[in-house]
Design goal:
heterodimer; A: about 350 residues; alpha+beta; 5-stranded antiparallel sheet; globular; disordered N terminus; B: Double Stranded RNA Binding Domain; 14 strands; Ribosomal_uS5_N (chain B); RNA binding (chain B); Ribosomal_uS5_C (chain B); structural constituent of ribosome (chain B)
Chain lengths: ~350, ~400
């Protein structure tokens, strides 16, 4: 396929003087982003851990599957339609349910947890004779079909005569103009600004924030990383795990907490809600992330106890919760056996 | 003849006729007042004195008493007894009453033009000051039951006649009302009486004795689409999503409010002016609705709901006790099954003829506005105002915003 390059001419820029302003904005935001690049205190590269098969299975198990929650009523921003009804035989019901299973899997696919991308600094050529040819940049983009936006060639000729590869922000902007991604805006929505995002979080709109961040940014975009990490930490601090539990964002959140050594609150929550399977899986995930080993203990109770006695950071609280859980479990078993004896 | 002559005629008395009696002196005050302010019987028959907003005469004598005036004086024998105990009361001036004047003026202001009782626009009926469409309160309590939460709406209020051998044409008022608690219970009835208010009361209390329970879907709409008819009135009812509202005949709308249905579309065909038939047809349709369990049992099939906002997740609404494996033709669609295979004709959607010159003309005129709405929204999202792309360079070029003037309290 022939390569077709679209070019912004001088006249075109003249008609959009606002564009120059936005170009200036890029540099401002990139400065902001550099500050956040230092932020995540991970022990390892999250991408390396995230894509491991056993980590994926553990995260999937931790997420769980609840059709009612995954397919809950969403605000689509359009007029509601009356529901449709069908009369189905058992075979047909099984068929639609199987289709739903596929859909559910797709809906629960987790957005990856990655480290920040490196800024692009590639310079193709420097032609001093072109210096001051114009007061605007020229941006060239290859708009051929069959190339992913990640691999698309976007180059910029700066007014100082440098021909360089476009920065991530310029690239995303150009790609959004020619190949719009649904749900993504050219300018970053105001929702993601400092005060506004806090407002959203205070209103418990975690899923909405994370979904919109997924639509707006690439997963290794520094802004995506800062928004999602902020949301995860907020959920963790306020122990509102149930609001994210059966969504695709629960897995990355758990991995984030484990990687940044903040999983004790979550473990405490699992023990308090008597979700021992999830607690054991969380401990398994901890071991996998820490040293790529799967723990030898088979018994879930033993596994959790070993963690609490060993590497746990919030020992006193966890021990207390664990003891009270064991107590209740013991009582429950006694009552159960008594009932069995009585019925026998 | 130069001497002035004094004519004897100059001293003749001028005789002018004087009438010492008139109807002012002949008639008492109340008759005079009536004569000025009222309309004669013959005039009433011709419709005189019924003009809307007419100014009526003010009786300035009202509130005034002989002996009481601007100056507050004590006149023994006129406005006070002459002797109090053993003392003779002297004529004297009392301190002025400052409120007297104001009271008189207020009394006079209250007279004058007759004003209708002001109803809130939401409480008014369908048309003018008439009763249909208006609420007449909850039914009268029966023993313990005081019909808490019920409301009654008049649907029809008319005069009906009957010929009798000895009395001739006898007139009565007929009231047709619906009462309900907005939560599934509703009833309607007719009441007839000589007096309108009696008819209303009769109808209201009869309706309260004929309450019916109507099943609703999620307490906001009907269970399913249905067709119903009574006499020449045919009604097509459609289930609608939340927020749609009541888009239907006004009689059906009032019944829906009484029952507690909030979202519905209903099309009335045939006789639409026969209020009683419309009400009866709709009510019969509501009562004949089938629950999902009934449909599942009758068809021996699963009833499955698909909603767009749930991404078409198949929600099983009802399971039959035994499931059949082969479907009949009517099972292909729920409406087909509910209507025994009959399909309501739908109006064909108007299709634009692309080569039509008037369509082309319309396009050429409206083309430049086609994206305005979206552009406005985007500008509001990005900048908080609708502005030109030159606003950065010329900040003084701003759209003048409409600011509501605050009322000074």
């Amino acid at each position: 396929m022939a390569t077709r390059a679209a070019m912004f001419t001088f006249s075109k820029f003249r008609y959009f003087p606002i564009l120059k302003h936005r170009v200036a904005k890029f540099s401002v935001s990139s400065n902001l982003l550099n500050a956040s690049a230092l932020e995540p205190g991970y022990s390892r590269d999250p991408g390396e851990v995230f894509f491991k098969e056993n980590v994926q299975t553990l995260l999937e198990r931790l997420t769980g599957r609840d059709c009612d929650k995954v397919f809950h009523n969403r605000k689509l921003g359009e007029r509601l339609e009356p529901p449709k009804y069908e009369l189905l035989t058992q075979a047909e019901v099984d068929h639609v349910m199987a289709e739903m299973e596929v859909k559910l899997k797709r809906k629960l696919q987790m957005p990856p947890l990655l480290k920040e991308r490196d800024p692009i600094k590639k310079i193709y050529s420097f032609n001093p004779e072109l210096q001051g040819f114009d007061d605007s940049k020229y941006v060239f983009i290859n708009i051929s079909q069959g190339i992913t936006n990640r691999n698309r060639e976007v180059v910029v000729r700066d007014p100082n005569g440098v021909l360089r590869e476009a920065s991530w922000e310029e690239r995303q902007r150009m790609c959004q103009i020619y190949f719009p991604v649904p749900g993504r805006k050219i300018n970053v929505p105001k929702m993601f600004e400092e005060g506004n995002i806090q407002n959203c979080l205070d209103r418990d709109e975690f899923e909405f924030v994370l979904d919109r961040a997924c639509a707006q940014f690439d997963p290794d975009d520094p802004e995506y990383i800062s928004v999602t990490r902020k949301t995860y930490d907020f959920v963790d601090e306020n122990t509102k795990y149930t609001s994210l539990r059966p969504t695709r964002h629960f897995g990355p959140m758990v991995l984030h907490l484990v990687l940044s050594k903040k999983m004790d609150n979550l473990l405490f929550h699992f023990i308090n809600t008597k979700d021992i399977d999830a607690a054991a899986n969380l401990v398994r995930l901890f071991h996998t992330v820490a040293d790529d080993t799967s723990p030898t203990e088979v018994d879930e109770f033993q596994l959790i106890e070993n963690y609490i006695q060993g590497p746990a950071l919030k020992k006193p609280a966890l021990e207390l919760a664990w003891q009270s859980f064991l107590e209740i479990e013991k009582q429950r078993r006694e009552v159960h056996s008594q009932q069995n004896n009585a019925s026998n | 003849m130069t001497t002035p002559l004094v004519s004897s005629k100059m001293f003749n008395p001028v005789v002018s006729p004087v009438r010492h009696t008139s109807f002012f002196t002949k008639l008492p005050a109340d008759k005079l007042w009536k004569g000025v302010t009222s309309v004669s019987n013959a005039g009433k028959k011709r419709g005189r004195g019924r003009a809307v907003g007419k100014k009526t005469a003010k009786n300035l004598n009202r509130g005034q008493v002989i002996g009481v005036g601007k100056t507050n004086m004590l006149w023994p024998g006129l406005n006070s007894p002459i002797i109090q105990g053993k003392e003779l009361i002297q004529q004297q001036k009392l301190p002025d009453d400052p409120e007297r004047e104001a009271k008189l003026l207020k009394l006079r202001d209250e007279m004058g033009a007759f004003r209708l009782l002001r109803l809130s626009p939401l409480d008014r009926g369908w048309s003018g000051p008439k009763l249909p469409g208006r609420s007449v309160g909850r039914p009268d309590p029966v023993g313990e039951d005081d019909f808490e939460g019920f409301d009654t709406i008049v649907l029809e209020f008319k005069i009906v006649c009957n010929m009798k051998g000895n009395l001739g044409r006898t007139r009565r008022t007929s009231a047709f009302v619906v009462t309900g608690n907005g939560n599934g219970l509703a009833g309607f009835a007719i009441g007839k009486a000589q007096m309108g208010m009696t008819a209303l009361r009769k109808a209201k209390n009869r309706a309260a004795q004929k309450l019916m329970y109507v099943e609703r879907y999620n307490e906001h709409t009907v269970m399913h689409d249905f067709f119903t008819a009574f006499g020449k009135t045919r009604v097509f009812v459609q289930k609608k999503p939340e927020g749609y509202g009541l888009v239907c005949h006004r009689v059906i709308r009032e019944i829906c409010k009484a029952v507690g249905i909030k979202d519905i579309y209903a099309k009335v065909e045939g006789s639409t002016k026969n209020v009683q038939h419309v009400a009866k047809a709709f009510m019969v349709g509501l009562l004949q609705q089938k629950s999902f369990e009934m449909i599942a049992e009758e068809t021996k099939l699963h009833v499955v709901e698909f909603r767009k906002e749930r991404d078409y997740f198949p929600q099983i609404m009802a399971k039959p006790s035994e499931v059949k494996t082969v479907k009949s033709i009517n099972d292909m669609d729920l409406n087909l099954y509910l209507n025994d295979g009959k399909v309501a004709t739908k109006k064909k959607k108007y299709q634009v003829n692309e080569s039509d010159p008037t369509w082309k003309n319309h396009l050429s005129k409206t083309e430049r506005f086609r994206n305005h709405e979206q552009v406005r929204v985007n500008l509001l999202v990005d900048h908080g105002e609708v502005r030109s792309f030159l606003a950065d360079r010329y900040p003084e070029c701003r759209q003048i915003k409409f600011v509501k003037r605050r009322e000074e309290s």
